[in-house]
Amino acid sequence: MLNPSARHLTAQACLQDVFGYNSFRGEQQEIVDHMVAGGDALVLMPTGGGKSLCYQLPALLRQGVGIVVSPLIALMQDQVDALQQLGVKAAFLNSSLNSEEFSKVTAALLRGELQVLYVAPERLLIPNFLSLLEQVADHIGIALFAIDEAHCVSQWGHDFRPEYRKLTVLHERFPHVPRIALTATADAPTRAEIIERLALEDARQFISSFDRPNIKYRVLLKANARQQLESFIESEHPNDAGIIYCLSRRKVEETAERLKAKGWDALPYHAGLDADIRHAHQRRFLREEGVIMVATVAFGMGIDKPNVRFVAHLDLPKSMEGYYQETGRAGRDGLPANAWMTYGLGDVVNMKQMLENSDAPAERQHVERQKLDALLGFCESTACRHQTILRYFGEQHPGDCGQCDNCLTPTDTWDGTQAAQMALSCVYRTGQRFGVVHLIDVLLGKTSPKVTQFNHEQLSTFGIGKSLSQTQWSSVFRQLVASGYLETDMDAFGGLRLTEAARPVLRSEVMVWLRQDQETPKRASKVERGARAKEAYAHVADDPLWHALKAKRTELAKEQGVPPYLIFHDSTLLEILNHRPTSLTEMGRISGIGQAKLTHYGDAFLEVLEG
User: Fold this and answer.
1) Closest CA to 142 of 154, 151, 152, 134
2) What is the spatial distance between Cα 419 and Cα 465, in angstroms, rounded to a whole number?
């Protein structure tokens, strides 16, 4: 039922008059119209995409008060402050209020003076409060129920809140009040769980693109992480607001102190700090310019600061969902922003140890390991970062975004086509239901109990992968998942299965290029290569071919107006000289030649070698 005082207003007029916007964004208008008409909805929209408008505006247009279920006190405070600035009669009920304040808000609610009320799920589920809402429904009306951060309903999610699973009570006790569940972070299994747990089977789904084209993604291997971080901030964000995520409380405090000592306005935030300190730091971050928050994941959900220019990770997050949500706190105003992360083997070890030492049931630990592997695959992938992220959430992206490290400065790669075919064949021949550990055992020819149990030592793929180590095969499988050739079947306890994209690989119709690890197939160690290059360098001064290769590099550099080393380093030219590749495939195995450089310069240098 429409709000009598707003019947003369259309959604467009309300948008203009109350919120000050001339037009809706994306699917906002369709969602608003659907809610105003009394329909239920599930809305997936990226952080900064305008989710709150999708329930705030219908709450103003429909009869009664809009009830918003929100998991965080800070988020409620920010939303209510913003609405009050717009002249909307909004309030919240949570544990931050004293008894007098609570009574005042309750009285205003019963008198019909509120248009929007935010409540915590714990508060809403109290029997007395549900009875209060029934009084409101009978005498004033409830415009709608909005369940924000709906991914909290998923027990496999990174922000699980058990109270969210009881919110079906809204449908049971108020069957005629429309409900809208909203989140920025939900893969396909999480979406299915939201629908099931909140009884939204008949709700219309609005799924916006997960892409954040204004964010530039970069992932670096750890060298000296703090030094790398400082160089990044100094060169790109010396005076900007940003968030830096660390895994431990100790690292949060040490990093904040170090940055502060070097002149940045950095503040720590973690669950171990006094609540008043956390509140003060969060307030400064939200209200002041140029503040850097160094935090654990305890900070961030619901933070609505639009001009965060960068989000940095000094440690690996737990999952792609967590990474996507955390990086989504940058650039909410749509202007350019950076998502910068450094990771190393130690991160992987720490995260896996945390999983093994947790009290979570075995099934949950297994799912968490799969999520961690997906994130590692993202880190190691040579594909466009935007493309890999969107693929994880079931969305297609053409790649070549121009907004990530892999597209801007392609990494060193190796021809992993044969390794990919072995891996994909092994997945197929074992029945597309086993995890990585077992598949690697088969490829390496290990007679583990499981291999023996399923007679997999009889398979043609048994032992065919001995040229790679277990670590290398783990990387191969992660990259194949990240690149969309394999997918994890969560319903089959994390077993891997082929996608349609695997077919042309198995038929040798496409090549697969993989990120080059320190330990790549049939290549010498980094130290050995360096020593060999140094030795080779001493004997090339009089080699005409060496001078011809350098001349070609200089020629190409002049054409593009760049320094010669941006074409190829001397070490790369030395490998070309020593290995004398005769094809683009062989050229692609040279250290320092990624796919883009192979495409741009490969033929030119092959001509010199053919000379």
Assistant:
1) 134
2) 8
**Judging by DSSP bridges, how do beta strands 116-119 and 65-69 pair with one another?**
parallel
The rounded mean pLDDT for the chain is: 85
Instruction: Quote the distance between the C-alpha of residue 248 and its chain's center.
Output: 20
Whether residue 152 is found in the same domain as residue 298 = no
CA pair distance 199, 171, nearest whole angstrom: 7
Which of these three, 408, 426, 458, is where a domain ends? 408
Asked if residue 521 lies in contact with residue 419, where contact means CB atoms within 8 angstroms, the answer is yes
Residue with tokens 């001995």: 466
Band of residue 381 on the pLDDT scale cut at 50, 70, 90: confident
Lowest mean pLDDT across 36-45, 147-156, 357-366, 448-457: 357-366
Q: Among 365, 389, 408, where does a domain finish?
A: 408
pTM for the full model?
0.65
89-103, 182-196, 415-429: least confident range? 182-196
Higher-pLDDT residue of 303 and 576 is: 576
Which residues does residue 65 pair with via DSSP β-bridges, in sequence order? 142
| Rounded Cα gap, residues 428 and 138, in angstroms | 60
DSSP state of 402: S
Is residue 115 within 8 Å of residue 65, measured between CB atoms? yes
CA distance 341 to 376: 12
Sheet holding 337-343, edge to edge: 215-221, 337-343, 310-313, 242-245, 292-295, 266-269
